[in-house]
Design goal:
Bound molecules: pyridoxal-5'-phosphate
CATH superfamily of the largest domain: Type I PLP-dependent aspartate aminotransferase-like (Major domain)
Strand order of the largest sheet: 1-9-8-5-4-2-3
Helix content: 40-55%
Number of helices: 16
Distance between the termini: 26 Å
CATH topology of the largest domain: Aspartate Aminotransferase, domain 2
Mean pLDDT: 97
Low-confidence stretches: none
Shape: globular
Order of helices and strands: HHEHEHEHEHHHEEEEEHHHHEEEEHHHEH
Strand content: 5-15%
Largest sheet: 7 strands, mixed
């Protein structure tokens, strides 16, 4: 069986983790702080806070911005549940909008969904392909739209407009007009979950890139406390002589990253651009070439005029196929010992959101993308021979179903 997304675990990762274990410091400490500095240099944003997951990071930032009951947050209908669930946790209303043919949130649909209650837009770079950030950033700065904004908290007054909080769970290393994902919007959150491009087993990072007059150093300190029960000192600071006394300034969360996680991240980041992304791009190129012979195959966009994917998963679509046929094709691919997937079932189709009154009929492009989509594996240890096997299994399965 060709697995869908195994992590790259080799001696380097093992050695770095073992080094952390024997160091006597296994929770948040020097390696997490080092990983944060290197992530800041990598993304080109202003400062980074590592957290226990992207979900934690997204929720932390919604809470920081004061999101609560009565607020609306715009989320694409086509994403993983984390993006919307964190909005529900805050008591705010999720406003789903439709996506475009490239799977990402549609800027014109965002514009139509904005009301005086809108506080945040959460674009998601599906499969690593950056959203249309020029359009989204221009939208929130548009004077007519700024006039609608009703700030309630100190942070909302300071920003004076809708916040753009990017869910970059797939897209670390992606590029948009020469800038990396991380410094494209106000705040970007990476995921380092086991199946993501760069993994720490579980983990995430908040990339701060807020405009003037925000002081990112001060916000970092606030968030650091917020991610550790509102405690004024972290565990490392408390071990310093005389450092035992601390205060609780708010009832915060427990969202910190450990040095065990960070040690994996340090190894992954050091070889990310020159090794990991190179291999991922080769796999994308090969799938694109191999499927170009088949008129039924619709391959995704992943590189054009200054925009580059992080090559997270290969979203193949089959032209003119129904959802039921697609499901059968997937079964046939599995019968050939190849694991594939679907990214994603649109959230309005999920029981919870359906019961809340959302209807997939309002998101026709999301449904069309989903119903014809099959995610093909992309990972460092996937060899060319394995890619050949995936392509062969897919072609046989499709031809069996369609012809
Ligand atoms: C994986 C994923 C998340 C959640 O990441 P965690 O680190 O597991 O919390 C959020 N959004 C999208 C689009 C994802 O794929």
């Amino acid at each position: 069986m060709i697995p869908f997304s195994p992590p790259r675990i080799d001696q380097k990762i093992v050695d770095e983790v073992v080094d952390t274990l024997y160091s006597g410091w296994i929770t948040t400490g020097p390696k997490t702080k080092k990983f944060e500095k290197l992530l800041t240099a990598y993304g080109g944003h202003k400062i980074t806070l590592c957290v226990s997951s992207a979900s934690a990071g997204l929720e932390l930032m919604l809470r920081w911005f004061g999101i609560q009951e009565g607020d609306e947050v715009i989320v694409p209908a086509y994403t993983y549940s984390a993006t919307a669930n964190v909005v529900v946790h805050c008591g705010a209303k999720v406003i789903f909008v439709d996506v475009t043919n490239d799977f990402n949130i549609a800027a014109d649909a965002i514009k139509k969904a904005i009301t005086p209650r809108t506080k945040v837009i959460m674009p998601v770079d599906i499969a690593g392909w950056p959203c249309d950030y020029d359009a989204i950033n221009a939208l929130v700065r548009n004077p007519e739209i700024k006039k609608l904004f009703r700030p309630q908290t100190k942070e909302q007054h300071m920003l004076g407009r809708i916040l753009v909080l990017s869910d970059a769970a797939h897209s670390i290393g992606g590029q948009y007009h020469e800038k990396k994902v991380g410094n494209l919007t106000d705040i970007t959150v990476y995921s380092f979950h086991a199946v993501k491009n760069l993994t720490t087993a579980e983990g995430g990072a908040v990339c701060l890139n807020l405009p003037e007059p925000f002081d990112q150093e001060i916000i970092y300190q606030e968030l650091n406390a917020k991610s550790l029960h509102g405690q004024t000192k972290d565990a490392l600071a408390k071990t310093k002589i005389g450092g035992w006394r601390y205060d609780i300034i708010e009832p915060g969360y427990k969202y910190n990253m450990t040095d065990i996680q960070a040690s994996m991240g340090l190894v992954e980041l050091a070889r990310y651009d020159d090794d990991m992304l190179v291999r991922r791009k080769q796999i994308f190129d090969k799938y694109t070439r191999d499927f170009s012979k088949y008129p039924w195959a619709q391959t995704p966009e992943y590189e054009c005029s200054g925009i580059k994917s992080s090559y997270h998963v290969f979203l193949l679509r089959i032209k003119g196929i129904s959802e039921q046929q697609r499901d059968q094709v997937i079964q046939e691919i599995f019968n050939r010992e190849v694991a594939v997937n679907v990214h994603f079932v649109p959230l309005p189709m999920m029981t919870y959101y359906r019961n809340e009154g959302y209807d997939i009929k309002d998101y026709p492009v999301a449904y069309d993308n989903f119903s014809r989509e099959i995610s093909l594996p992309v990972y460092y240890d996937l060899t060319d021979d394995m890619v050949d096997t995936v392509v062969k299994a897919t072609v046989e399965a499709v031809e069996k179903e369609i012809i």
